[in-house]
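Lecture notes, unit on protein representations.

Consider one protein chain, 415 amino acids long.
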Amino acid sequence: MDKRVAVTGLGVISCVGKDINTFWNNLKNGVCGIELITEFDTENLPVKIGGKIRDFKPEDFGMDKPFIRKQDPFTIFAMAATYQAMNDSGLVSGENIDPKRLGVYVGSGIGGFQTIQRELGKFNEDQSGQWVSPNFVPTMIGDMAGGQIAIKYGAQGSCIDIVTACATSTHAIGEAYRAIKHGYADAIIAGGTDHCTIPIGIAGFANARALSRSEDPKYASLPFNANRGGFVMADGAGVIILEEWERAVARGAHIYAEAVGYGSTCDAYHATAPRPDGSTQAECIKIALDEAGFNQNKDCVYINAHGTGTALNDSTETRAYKIAFGEFAQKCHISSTKSMHGHMFGATGAVEAAATVLALQDGIVPPTINLDTPDPECDLDYTPNAAVKAELTLGLSDSFGFGGHNACIAFRKVF
């Protein structure tokens, strides 16, 4: 018999908030966290803006200085988000959950990008490799965030690092949901993390013509806007605690929402461009909707869109919604919170899932800010500029990654 799955903990590190309350309040109020980059010299770079994590002290999130010195920021961000989420959930391995029934599904789109850039620079100085850190490999590999989380929190169940570019943490949450639903775990720490807003990252994405080159950081991430010119890079992490419903209820945990559906497909079309007709993205959404028991006569739907602000994604995503929902697409409340926190790559799906869960809980749809000139091809309700109240019952968060990777997760409001 399938198990029900509860959301019992949330943690976020982002440019609009390094704790859940700040993050959610800023999203509701349309606060943009994108700023000019000052952490390194951008004079010769084509893009000078990003969603950087500022005034961040890892020590505030249960990490000591020796640990911090050895880790890449992507792992540190993941540890900080997990610290919040685990404290929020009240789970303690070996006390109120069997360590063998606690898993970690935390992925990263790229891994230790900053470490790679730094150590490669050392290697290129003399090609001998003598100055390359012995910690290089265990610091930069993409599974290290999940591994360090498992060590810290005594999670002896499955520890799986999913890598599907921008869909990474949506897939991680979806696969964690399935594992609990089918009885393979009692609880899973699920999410994603990335730190890509560094010189080599900017150069790579900018040369691929994917990034906004706006000089105004507050008017740069423009999902569904006719003026959009690409996405804005950002850093951070998002972690969600998923737990078998009955045990969560039995221990008196706060349940934010119920995870009820998950879809996963591939465009099988192009390395970076989405399938233009939106058919494979729509199928992914439909799979999640069907599993969630979507009822167009009863449900009030919120969708946290992938909404990158690229020319191809936003129009294709709109087509996908129309295929998946039919005429009901016109009734959906949709927004892209990337307009405020930017595109966080492997972290973005989990961060947006947290926003989706909070939207359901509070009955508030966060806005798509700066939506002053809607693209005629993006003609659904993308919640322009200001949050709205709604009696939401079903929430979706979808992510589409390079390589054609599509993921969608569905949550239901708890009454």
